[in-house]
Amino acid sequence: MHRFLRLSVFFAGLLMAMASQANTTAQPLTTADDLGPQVDQPIEFPHDRHAGDADKGGMQINCMYCHTYARRSIVAGIPPLQKCIGCHQGIESVRETPRIKKLFEYWEGSADGTIAAKTPIPWKKVHDLPDFVRFNHERHIQRFYFQQEKPVQEVCGYCHGDVKTMTVARRSKSLSMGWCVSCHEKDHPLDATSTMTSQGPNDCWQCHK
Amino acid sequence: MSVTNLLENWSQFRHKHPVEDKPHAEYKWAMSIDLDACTGCNACSVACYAENNLPVVGKEKYSHGFSHHWMRIERYWDEDGREFPDQGAQFLPMMCQHCEAAPCETVCPVGATNHTGDGLNSQVYNRCIGSRYCEANCPYKVRYFNWYDYPTTNNVWPEPMNQQLNPDVTVRGKGVMEKCTFCVQRLTVAKSDARSQGRTVRDGEVQTACQQACPTGAITFGNLVDPEARVGKQWMQQQVELAVDHQAKDQHEHAEQASKLRGYRIFEELRPYPSVMYLERVRESAV
Amino acid sequence: MIENSFNRRDFLKVLGWGGAAVTLSGCGNTSVEDGRELVTSYSEPAEYVIPSIGVYFNSTCAQCDAGCNIMGKVREGRVLKLEGNSQSAINRGKMCGLGQAGVQAHYNPDRLREPLLRTGDKGEAISWDTALELINAKLDGVQGNQIAFLTGGISGHVNVLLKNYIDALGSAKHFAYEAVAPSVVRAANKKAYGVEMPRLRLDKAKVIVSFGADFLGAWVSPVHFAQQYAQFRKASNGGRGVLVQIESKMTLTGANADRWLAIRPGTEGILALGLINALGAGGVKVAADAAGAAKAYTPERVSTETGISVEQITKLAALLKERTPSLVIAGSAAEGYAHGSHNAAAIALLNQALGNVGKTVEFPAALPFPQIAPTVGNRYALHALNDDMAHDQVKVLFNFGANPVFTAPAGLKFKENLGKVPFKVAFAHYMDETALQADLVLPLDSALEEWGTSVPEYAAEGAQLNVHQPLMEKLYPGTRATGDILLALLKLRRAQEYKGYEDFYAYLRSALVQNKAALGGSGKDDDTFWSATLSNGLVKLPGASNAARKTSATTLVFPAPAAQDGAYPLRLIPAVTANMRDGRHANQPWLQESPDPLTTIVWDSWVEIHPKTAARLGIVEGDIVEVASKSGTLKAQAYLFPGIHPDAISIPLGYGHQAMGRYAKDIGANAFHIMDAVFDSETGELAMHETRVKISPTGQRVVIVKDEGSAGGKQMGKKIAVRVSSEKVDLSEEV
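The joint structure predicted for all components is written out below.
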């Protein structure tokens, strides 16, 4: 049953690919949005407040200030609770707002005892990839942010969308294989001295583990 | 390999012969195994189980040939009919040879196994439909099929044994083919780290699990493109060339010189152009 | 470390386990769980924790006594894989299969999880406090000399606590028992060289003659020896080394020999003396006492008794004369007889005659801290304990992880005698055969969960103290480390002395830090010294050099060639394989599924028979045969094996568990249980190769589950595994 299904998926894929035209001219890295579900999180974390532009009331914090693992690891990871507390214990002005009170419940334990002290916040996944996919955050950030010196929000935004305008994050790109490939097949604009190939790698084992 | 690639020229990923006009740019992973150092102890094989989430299938399934030892030790006796094998046994570690013109690649109906730019013979579980043509066409018999859904089979990974599974390697389900990957998950990490530093992987920076465990250091693994790599030096000294099916050792005109060479590739005559060179076992003539 | 088990499990689902479901869906379909699954996060991660990047912690392998230094790859709070520690002089970053399987001892689903008290036939779960109080209560009113301790080989600070506890109880009965230890060779070495375990320099030797020492497989320190062997073969000191293995059943080492000689079982010493004789005749200067001992052993006589041809003896003597230094090793096959001590002594004498002592046989430095020195296990201990139990002299028995009900030869009637002990406490990882007989079972931490130290008996370069540290949090809250249990018991006896130590970790840290000057940490502050020690995973110990001692040859007596025993015509050779050894790791499935290198059999016992003997008895491969000795019988599949003397059969040890766990129970047959209780004449050690058997087909036949394929391991004319003669190549020129 599964095998037949898979074959038909394969042939459908062939037809679709024939209809589309492979593109070889330089193109921007952004793609159209493809919204994921709205996810309710234990704390409605305001990305706009932290990372948003100053003229819109944001603090323009670099994404990697909190998401510190992204430049060093395959996975971006979720900032540890300690990170939030590190700043917020010194910010008295918002200490009594509902979200920050909730935050401190995870750190200090809740009054009713339902949350133990230092409980990691049970965030839900927003950007999930299948388990067989090896997507390497470090590699992309190293290339686009550190080597090509593009703005960090643009680099993260290739895949995560315009997070600085969101409160809790919402997936805004499809993150499907076809979507990944659509970028890897483009001729990226590179500076003339770079030794790097213009395309991203295209063999299966680069992403499939 | 995307669908577009597939359509444009699938055959470029399914070599019938090493493509001379498209040499490997940065990497060509290859191995050499010294049979004189190999003791047949099986450490490599167990290390492979640990690294690559190989299922332990149990006696009954093993008897049907369903074992999953990507790295196996073959043992051969002399066939001269003497009373005792007084020159010992011959051990041979056998795993996917990552052939440059892999017989498995050309028969896959769905392009699930093909060649990567690094010269690896890749196996993509998602694309595999389980036809097993590749297994049939592999002269080395190093492809292993998942006849069962081992993750849900009793006593394969019972709690808490599943906590040992390597998160970098997919746990394969029923109906797909699998085989040695030259520990591609390690290669990917090493390549990425090197790229971040603007260089290529240095010799010795990345080891396969079998190589790392081998107590006698019989296994050498590395990048054939890198002139500093030990594996390349070995290939060169033994005059074994990747894209040739008749090595110096086989040339009769140089018989005397050629007899000093120990390097050979198994089933060279079938022209799969394997990426693994073996060094002949040496036995003392004085006793 | 990850904060709680919930997270750990969840992480597993995300990164490892989920892949299973995924392969079932084709291209385009994914198991993406946006907004449904939780994402793992930390509250206060250590600085070095980066998700998806492994952190390595150094520790020590506990799978055998070699004491290889290892490092565990830890990710997201789980230990995933063990690798060798490259700073170790013992294993230099390498590992064997047995060691690799250590993670399966840790994650084993059949591990004991809480203390169990026997009520009738059942075990009732009790708390640790109750268990320790119960032990203390049972010890009251029992005389010190009626309390016995049975352990395996033990060393380091656990040994210190154990000695102190034994002392606190007024007992002097510590029986250190190892079923397959080279105890007779140790005793012979002590006599011949003055040390029990000289350092063998395989790498310096040009010729190695091994009398049944499986140093590449399961003897003493195989990973260390395998590395030396690689250098020996690589011609690093000019000329590729030649290995001659002399034994009645081919071991893994024998399979790697240039020349493998099938010797009549038990005549190893005779051949050694014959070689001394031939060397003397060939013009080598042999000391008078050795020459005298060997005088009667002419090549012709030796050939008749050993079955090795005169030509072969002459060739071997010529080789030994020509290529020096050489190294002669006595292994477990030579020592396994009632005259095993004499075999081992004769082999040591051959080393002396060849002038190898001081060249390839070196002397390790004496250990500076005798209290942490290894108490090595032997087989005499079991014999002695068994006698005590048989005479009702043991009222309370503590058993630390040894499994004598499984490993004792039937002839000792060990299980019966154990029943006479009123209160038996077993410290155990599994509910094994011995734990099943206990009155109280205390579950132990796995080797990857506990703190400890050990001192390997075989010193690779110099003496070293190995550090054992936890590689992850405990899987089960109800298990405890051996050190912690001993400390708790000691607190019940010597509260004042031990009250300062909250747990064994505190004790260990304090013990090492107090001695930091002697451990190479002088001038460092305590914390720096301690963290350096943990991060290295070992401490090299200084030691005074130990001069060679040469003793003269003692009278060596060898039995006359035995007349054929009509009732039991064959000799049983219990094989110690690298995977199974004495069977304590039989519940680790990688070891069961990893083929025996020589027969390629998996998941079962087998009986190795020479094809000639099999033909005579009408046995073909796969026949279920009954093997009977004076002490018992077993049934197993016959495997026709050319690498065995026709007068012998061989059965691997370690199979045939009746308990222990799902991967070990009912797999194969237990060869220990048909062994006769025969002892070495000098040391009183159990002689492992003295059992005589008869063998008969039962009429049943099975297809052997093995890896060699239908061609039976033949190359069928193909060029697969190729061999070349040494005169044709020069390895010293190779890369």
